């Protein structure tokens, strides 16, 4: 062997060198940090767009507002402080407010803004021009558990868009101790709200600025209007003051010396992070970590031994801990933390002690990225020189709040540059059209003002952001920065060769979506804490993590244990007794909540014990295999909407209509929601949740196009009239299409079919009805959007809605959640209404659409039919669904808002009034499609028909007729396989003879 190596050593060395070069090249290409070095000064480039004539209606960002005013010479004022009593208002809205006395033990009165859109206005006077800050005493009143959201107008206008959405957090604590199941696994207790007065300055709800907002005011009188956007709350007082100046550590250190403060000795105090005394958000909770040094640790069971993690990531979220020190003096403070969430990117927390910043450096303490546990020395400039903090003997509170201040201005710069990219993209489309010839000479430099310098300037903005990230400690080669490099280089390439721009527009658009996602991800500053440390300087810092030998032993133990441990069971697991088995196809966090509710509520009410098991995601075949093997559960939840009929036709489910109170339970849902679960006169499942489509639109862009609020399209005819106007202005309409998931095509087509009065099947599901005139019209309308009107076949609607390229479109409720939580710059500038429909003869607009989601069903093999029905009734009841939705949102945030199918429960979820009104109007037209055996061919061929018509140019009728032939073949085959035609024939014969097919008398 060695002779062979010596013989070919040159070849081997060459190959190794080639491999190394390959990896070096792929790892470094595009990462040229000197790419902008040869460019002239781009600071004076006119980056304005002809599309901005008349001015953008969107407010500027706070960073741009403050930067521009500072550049003009505006300065902080000094020495001013003024307090406005909550009841000393100049004007107030006619409805939705109330005066409160003695609220929360506060002496005197307060003004409560109770209803959405209520407001109060105060007048005040300032002595000089300059920057001022505001703060407010507030009391969160009972509502829907969300944080309070308020808007602030100064002299009748919003100075910047962040002023339209100020978040005022509630306070939460754990309601009791953690609980343990009978496997000794630990679970979080419920969280309960702590009521009381709080003070907060007006600051960025995303924490993109270290300091509270600075509002520029001229000398004289001014008005401030505070509006209620979400949740009721009272105003105790409003404060206007000159910006506070927090001293730097160097100044504080000198004060220590002047006052004779001495370092303590011999004290070492730990505060376990999971024992947080107060927090801003019910989503902040204890979590498990399996590193052996994490305290406490249990190798045999789940122990919740750390705090935060992925849920502690959003600007403004805070938690606080209590520590008690034995004597006055100087201490060091730190923490054991894990920060492996943003690859190569440090995250930040502001740290206050007893409600005050000790010194300026604590506005944003950095926690660097590393794929293992670390020890942080708060404020340390290097490992050998931690900062000192003066603490008096007794109890103190340490609060840590999510802070994005270091990257905030960089993110605003990226967002502003993406907006400029969107404008230039729209200008290109105005010249080339939506489907340009990539080889044509479009003379873009002649038709678009300042094209090349604008592209170069945008590339420079991204280059500045890249270097700004490196300046704050981002690791070289971080994957989080690669997206910025790619966008920069694409912009440079387009500037160098403008002829290539039409052919690169799809890439250009995709990069805007990528950047939008990148910005959203960068604002999520997750951090995991094990414990806080308060110690004397002479005490050593602990080690960050266990040694390699100990960690390896723990991993081996977990690996061996995995062969015998049952990971599917959740909570208390009962054995050798009568128990209801429930299998749930959802995430572990979701199932934990359900199991806890079952144990605390359902079992306590009924005495019925329940075992809950988790079905892995997208593993519906597990149910089929279990049913075949005779080990099916009693009840299954989270089942995909098309699955129940597959079991019903095989006689595998209980017919819910056999229960005497079925009709009463069914009335909880829209009648159209039950259609997919009906077969042969029976009903075999209940809907748990439902999706729904709405029409989203940008108010500002619609106004710029001359479209009034009342003229937003209500019908598809109006949509088709609007599309040419959009495209003439470089914009487009959005209708969902998922080419990578053909199974969704049937849901995309269904609204057009139902609104045209069509159905998917005829003759009781024996034949396809897609060749009917109604279905044919629906196909022409659906595909015509893409063929005749040339709307985009695929797009990231959320990001393109934000950029303005798609200012109107149809999307589901997840888009609502995204826009509500991750698009602060659009606050007040977007709305949603029921989706477009077809005008009927009586003048009504038929907006019929479905939203097939997840269901609950009872297996026929169960010997606990009555208990199973009691469980299904309990689970789908309004009270249970509201509680589950609240707990879920408390655990995972608003992104996980539960779209329950229960009508009454949905109304009680924390939607805004205008939004829930629009949703309920759409739900009046809720209609779901029939599910039949062999219906998967319908799903497949609807996708094929779209492809044939839109991509291949086939005539719709030909494509439909070809598809219907194949669908009918499969329907016939499946009906023969299950003897359905024979059964129908027997029933018809029996009916003619006056008896039932089973031999009884015909009714």
Automatic annotation (TrEMBL):
Biased composition (Low complexity): 988-1003
Chain positions covered by the region annotation Disordered: 978-1003
InterPro entries: Bact_solute-bd_prot1, SBP
Protein name (Swiss-Prot/TrEMBL): ABC-type glycerol-3-phosphate transport system substrate-binding protein
